[in-house]
Specification:
This is Electron transfer flavoprotein subunit alpha/FixB family protein. Its cofactor is FAD. The protein has eight helices and 17 strands. By secondary structure, it is of the alpha/beta class. The chain folds into two domains: 180 residues, Rossmann fold; 119 residues, Rossmann fold (3-Layer(aba) Sandwich), CATH 3.40.50.1220. Strand 9 and strand 10 form a beta hairpin. The chain is globular and about 60 Å long.
Length: 327
Amino acid sequence: MGKKVLVFADRRDGVVRQVTYESIAAARLIVGDGKVIVAVLGTDGKKEVESLAHYGADHILLLEDGQLDTYITDAYFLAWQYVIDQVKPDVILTGHTTIGKDVAPRIAAHFDFGLISDCTSINMVGEEITYTRPIYAGKAFVKKTFVSGTQFSTIRPNNIPTLDLDTSRSATTEEISVEIKKDRLRTIVTQVVKKATSGIDLSEARIVVSGGRGVKSTEGFQPLQELADVLGAAVGASRGACDAGYCDYALQIGQTGKVVTPDLYIACGISGAIQHVAGMSSSKVIVAINKDPDAPIFQIADYGIVGDLFEVVPLLTKELKKVIQNG
């Protein structure tokens, strides 16, 4: 028997994020002969329909409301609540992002759903859905199942492969509206001021170049940025670098920062404290650059370079430029 799986699309600046397509791929694993329904919140959602269909969506709900263009907890809670009441899904999936981490627990508590957060894989074992998530700061993984009721989980970005693009697929669409009264909103966002970034979403980046206290200053991040530009990577940082004022906390990776799972993680001047490792230990390939041969980061690194990052990183950048230019 097929299941009805509801995926809440995660959008940034009006564009559906990669983790949404990963959530759809997970939905297709468990849906059987049922239906994958994707809810898109905010204006101009119609432009996303074709792409969502090509990657596995069967039916798309469009909530074209300008109040949902900017994330406000209460507005999103009301919208999600309304969609769930209308769809009555068997399974709900969304990204383990800032929005997902904020709204999912509220929705689960409201409906009395079980919630398994930060899943790195979802599999069918017979008729049972098994969810895998990390515990103990990523040192171990646990497999969980639901005993009964609607199943709700959030997906960690960069862990579940998306489906192959299928341009022959199409999806039905439905425009729905939810009444979001001003008196239900305890917070009103009047202005959003964005800080300059590389333009690459750190949590979804395939390559991350990260710096720690070893960069010594704000200027010390410049060689890392140059390497990142060559690789098309995002720049991250340890909490130590952020606390020292070398960079903004938006770049922080670790237990109290962002969790990343890139294909390649280059740690520059990072000692490897457990709090930082918790945010990047699931990276597919880890390269550590540190002048201390006994730095803990080398214990988890696939490749280690003992040396001064201010000598090693520019050399890496120079050689990689040659490789890329030569094809």
